[in-house]
Design brief:
Helices cover about 30% and strands about 15% of the residues. By secondary structure, the protein is of the alpha+beta class. A hairpin with a 6-residue loop joins strand 1 and strand 2.
Length: about 90
Amino acid sequence: MQSPENRLDFDTVIATFARPRYELMASGRVFDGEDDVRGYFARSRRVFPDRRVMCDVTNPNRSGRIFCLTRGAHSEHGVERHRLGESGADRG
């Protein structure tokens, strides 16, 4: 079964959280709250249009966090115009 995030069903993804929050381990960037997480979804799909998420939801750690692996190829246009994780990225 394909995950809601991979189907681009972001309403279903948001509905799984009491408070939506994504933390990117590599950069330390945090997207906290529904608007911030939806912005992350939009920006990440521009930069990585074929982005796929693989999560192990059967074994969350004690804090309730679920760790996921993401994969995707850069879109040259997206990388030039929208740096993933920057708050002013949608202006350009």
